[in-house]
């Protein structure tokens, strides 16, 4: 899910960087692109290190998390490794991180909904209410049921999203013109592969 979140975050970060560079009277778009790509690479490296660390901790303490629901893994590991007090603090930190992510994504997606999808026909407060209502409904489905809905969609769409991201980066950096065709080909190939996998 981090890839989808990063796309929405990238929209906001790109806009903020562009506005800051304009305020600083820096009009060279290459500087904005280079700064954005450098920040994205740095963030990707840090995120990768975090995932490697989480995977290592989970592997080293796998007996503790046997038969633990996926949504409780971090909490269980926190209390096991840090004790009741620090584990509670770590759990609160995770909850706050999730909350800030929801807020950031909600604001960003509401902005996209208002500006890009409705072409300013929808007031911003209506967009944010719709996003929060959808978020609340899905959040109350439970992790397992939510993943059963998301996983089939994500497994088909992710390769296309990755190709779309790469093509857009190539377009911005090198003027790459062909964007839709590789995305459609990737989507069709993924769909066909998923279909034949289910048949087999």
TrEMBL record:
Any GO BP annotation: isoleucine transport
Chief place of localization: membrane
UniProt name for this protein: Putative branched-chain amino acid carrier protein
InterPro entries hit by this protein: Brnchd-chn_aa_trnsp_Livcs
PANTHER family for the chain: BRANCHED-CHAIN AMINO ACID PERMEASE BRNQ, BRANCHED-CHAIN AMINO ACID TRANSPORT SYSTEM 2 CARRIER PROTEIN
Localization of this protein: Cell membrane
Record's keyword annotation contains Transmembrane: yes
Keywords assigned: Amino-acid transport, Cell membrane, Membrane, Transmembrane, Transmembrane helix, Transport
Gene Ontology molecular function terms on file: L-isoleucine transmembrane transporter activity; L-leucine transmembrane transporter activity; L-valine transmembrane transporter activity
Homology family: Belongs to the branched chain amino acid transporter family.
Domain of life of the native organism: Bacteria
One GO cellular component term: plasma membrane
Keyword Transmembrane helix: yes
Membrane topology: Multi-pass membrane protein
Pfam families reported for this sequence: Branch_AA_trans
Chain ranges passing through the membrane: 37-65, 85-110, 122-143, 149-169
């Amino acid at each position: 899910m981090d890839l989808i979140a990063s796309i929405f975050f990238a929209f906001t970060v790109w806009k903020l960087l562009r506005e800051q560079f304009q305020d600083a009277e820096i009009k060279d778009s290459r500087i904005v692109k280079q700064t954005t790509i450098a920040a994205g690479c740095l963030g990707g490296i840090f995120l990768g290190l975090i995932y490697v660390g989480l995977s290592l901790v989970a592997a080293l303490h796998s007996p503790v998390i046997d038969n633990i629901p996926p949504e409780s893994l971090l909490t269980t590991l926190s209390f096991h490794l840090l004790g009741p007090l620090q584990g509670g603090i770590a759990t609160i930190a995770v909850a706050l991180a999730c909350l800030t992510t929801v807020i950031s994504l909600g604001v960003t997606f509401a902005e996209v909904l208002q500006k890009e999808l409705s072409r300013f026909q929808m007031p911003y407060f209506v967009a944010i209410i719709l996003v929060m209502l959808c978020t609340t409904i899905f959040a109350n489905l439970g992790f397992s049921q939510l993943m059963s809905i998301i996983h089939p969609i994500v497994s088909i769409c992710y390769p296309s999203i990755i190709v779309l991201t790469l093509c857009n980066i190539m377009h911005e950096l090198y003027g790459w013109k062909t964007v839709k065709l590789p995305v459609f080909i990737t989507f069709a190939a993924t769909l066909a592969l998923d279909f034949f996998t289910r048949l087999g």
